[in-house]
Specification:
Length: 581
């Protein structure tokens, strides 16, 4: 089967939906493909807030937001991108308000704002209230609001279509070819469909499922990042993966930073607010990389609770009113998943794998680039967590992802609408689906191979234990070997379900391949970066090295061999300085 649309959006999270909305408003024949029903996208799980320097509560300016973003990202942020983010944050949040998003309000009816880690007044003087929020369900509200708008504007959705390949024309994407559409697997009946298109946006989200303890949904397996990579597009800055400080012990479900933004504290076994020793100025509102490392330091020093591998998040002093009005969901998570009552007890927490700073490299217009010279891949776009533009550099600030979706999702839709004019429909036929059909059939037909779940579990262990918050040469070499071994095992992956109806067994096996691609690039990039910056913390190279590494890593795989190249960071306003809080 073959279908045509002038533009395709892969992914129905915040980034994909806003792009689709712009395409619909521009009258472009377009469609969204999503493996999940749209409102199940991970954006709906986002809790704490979306930031914009509205200045509703306290004086604020987009320049301060830009500075915090650059410093928070340990100067690996492209500053032209951070400027776009901080400026357009304001108008996109107001546009969302006008679409009807039910933000919490101040007494005089304006959007309420709260504090979040690393967001400061006047270039680092102290915390500022910049995060707009709807209780601790901000992402849910954004997703519902955008989805409603998409329905209102008649956006075409292919729900539960799993994109399994990109279609190219004129060569591989890494060699000057263009994106010409996608191959999708219809989950309901296993039918493969070729969708031809003049422009394809990858908005497929992150890949936190490569770690054992993670806040990420089961579906976050790096599909878009890996599919582009398989066609020659580099993965950028993969070594920078964020661990969020406060996950539920063992299972990783997130307890939003909003808890600390509202005044929650972190306590060690001695009952001390240990952040005073690590970030005396911002304390618990230091950026996430620092707070996660501080928690590990306390645990290593034997000051975890009862000597164990967790510390406490304490919100008792905030009182029932604040907790019920501003943090209802996360306190309920603590009750349901831990059996702890946050009104009267401190909550045991430990860092949880959370967010990919790296991903598909793009320019400011969301066009995918393929080398250190920023050469654009025709017809291919990326936005949201799958993309690396790069506004987050080596470490993202809380609330800066949701705003990234809004700003760059909107830019993607507008850019695609402009670019498809006058371009002809690619002339590919449905034979382009044959390679991926053969790969899927091989998995389905294999007798006696290994199940994906076992390989996935081992991958999650390796990545958690050896490529987590702290790294060094020894553990990274061990991880490299282990991931190589897992790739070998994956060659014989097999499934129990050989049918065509809702065969999630087959699709999960496919997704594991994407996770392995992302993991392999992450380990190679982390090994080569012999410095510590943001979330990439090398115990054997504890200092940041701006002479060698003020650059983005581009990892490319050709004929099974990964090569790395380095692309300079764009610096406009803020020269790198030591990063203290
Ligand atoms: C628990 C949690 C809380 C968070 N809280 C905050 C917060 O308060 N503030 C903040 O700024 N950030 C927060 N984040 C981060 C932020 O929510 C995510 O980075 C962001 O929502 C990602 O959005 P996205 O549009 O890129 O993709 P997602 O919302 O992850 O959506 C991905 C989409 O891609 C589709 N897809 C994927 N693969 C395929 C495929 N092969 N074929 C077809 N479709 C595919 C899926 O169906 C889905 O629709 C949080 C994240 C988590 C996990």
């Amino acid at each position: 089967m073959i279908r045509d649309h002038d533009a395709l959006v892969v992914g129905a999270g915040g980034a994909g939906l806003w792009a689709a909305l712009e395409l619909a408003k521009a009258g472009v024949d377009s469609a969204v493909l999503t493996k999940l029903y749209p409102t199940r996208s991970h954006t709906g799980a986002a809790q704490g807030g979306v930031c914009a320097a509205l200045g509703n509560q306290e004086e604020d300016h987009w320049e301060w937001h830009m500075f915090d973003t650059v410093k928070g990202g340990d100067y690996l942020v492209d500053q032209d991108a951070a400027e776009v983010l901080a400026r357009e944050a304001i108008e996109t949040v107001i546009e969302l308000e006008h679409m009807g998003l039910p933000f919490n309000r101040t007494d005089d009816g304006r959007i309420d704002q709260r504090r979040f880690g690393g967001h400061t007044r006047n270039y680092g003087e102290g915390p500022v209230k910049r995060a707009c929020y709807a209780a601790d369900r901000t992402g849910h509200m954004i997703l519902q609001t955008l989805y409603q708008q998409c329905l209102k504007h008649g956006v075409k959705f292919y729900d539960e279509y799993h994109v399994v390949d990109l279609v190219t024309e004129g060569g591989e994407l890494g060699d000057g070819g263009r994106a010409a559409g996608v191959v999708a697997y219809r989950i309901a009946d296993g039918e493969l469909v070729v969708l031809r298109s003049k422009a394809v946006l990858l908005a497929t989200g992150g890949f936190g499922r490569m770690f054992r303890v993670t806040s990420n949904a089961w579906s976050l397996t790096g599909d878009g990042v890996a599919l582009a990579y398989r066609h020659g597009v580099p993965m950028q800055d993969m070594e920078f993966y964020q661990f969020h400080p406060t996950g539920i012990v063992g299972i990783g479900i997130l307890l939003s930073e909003a808890a600390r933004g509202e005044g929650g504290t972190l306590l060690n076994d001695l009952g001390e607010r240990f952040m005073k020793d690590y970030a005396p100025n911002l304390m618990e509102l230091a950026p996430r990389d620092m707070v996660s490392r501080a928690i590990y330091q306390e645990i290593r020093a034997g000051r975890g609770i009862g000597g164990k591998d967790y510390v406490y998040l304490d919100v008792r002093h905030l009182g029932r009113k604040v907790i019920e009005e501003k943090l209802p969901d996360i306190t309920e998570f603590a009750r349901v998943y831990q059996g702890v009552e946050p009104l009267t007890e401190p909550v045991p927490i430990q860092p949880t794998a959370h967010y990919a700073m790296g991903g598909i490299p793009t320019d400011l217009l969301t066009r995918v680039t393929r080398d250190t010279a920023h050469t654009v891949v025709p017809g291919l776009y990326a936005a949201g967590e799958a993309a690396s533009v790069s506004v987050h550099g080596a470490n993202r600030l809380g609330t800066n992802s949701l705003v990234d979706l809004l700003v760059f999702g909107r830019r993607a839709g507008r850019q695609m609408a402009a670019d498809v004019r006058g371009v002809r429909m690619p002339a590919v036929d449905d034979a382009v689906m044959e390679p991926v059909r053969a790969e899927l059939e091989a998995i389905r037909g294999r007798q006696g191979g290994e199940r994906a779940a076992a390989i996935r579990r081992d991958l999650a262990d390796v990545m958690m234990d050896d490529v987590g918050v702290y790294r060094d040469e020894t553990c990274l070499r061990r991880a490299q070997k282990a991931v190589g071994g897992l790739r070998e095992r994956y060659r014989t992956v097999a499934v129990h379900d050989t049918g065509t109806t809702f065969n999630t067994d087959l699709l999960e096996a496919r997704e594991l391949g994407y996770l392995l691609d992302c993991a392999e690039a992450m380990v190679a990039s982390a090994l080569a970066r012999t410095e510590s910056r943001g979330a990439h913390s090398r115990e054997d190279y504890p200092e940041r090295d701006d002479t060698k590494f003020l650059a983005h890593t581009l990892a490319t795989r050709r004929d099974g061999v990964i090569s790395l190249a380095y692309k300079p960071v764009t610096i406009t306003k803020f020269q790198p300085k030591p990063r203290t809080y």
